[in-house]
Amino acid sequence: MAGILQLLRDRQPRTRAELAQMTGLARSTVAARMEVLLASGLVSPLGEALSTGGRPPTVFAFNPSSRIIAAVDVGATHVRVAITDLASTIIVDRLETISIEDGPEAVLTNVAGITQELIAQSGRQLSELAGVGVGLPSPVDHATGRPMNPPIMPGWDGADVAGFLTGLMGGAPVLVDNDVNLMALGEHRTEFPDIDHLLFVKVATGIGAGVIIDGAIRRGAQGAAGDLGHIAVPGGRPVICRCGNTGCLEALASGRAIAAELTALGSPASSSGDVVALVRSADVRASQLLREAGRDLGRVLATCVSMLNPSVIVIGGQMAEAGEHLLAGIREVVYGRSLPLATQHLRIVTSRTMGHAGVLGGSTMVADHVLSREGLSSLI
Question: Which residues constitute the domain of residue 198?
Answer without folding.
Answer: 184-350
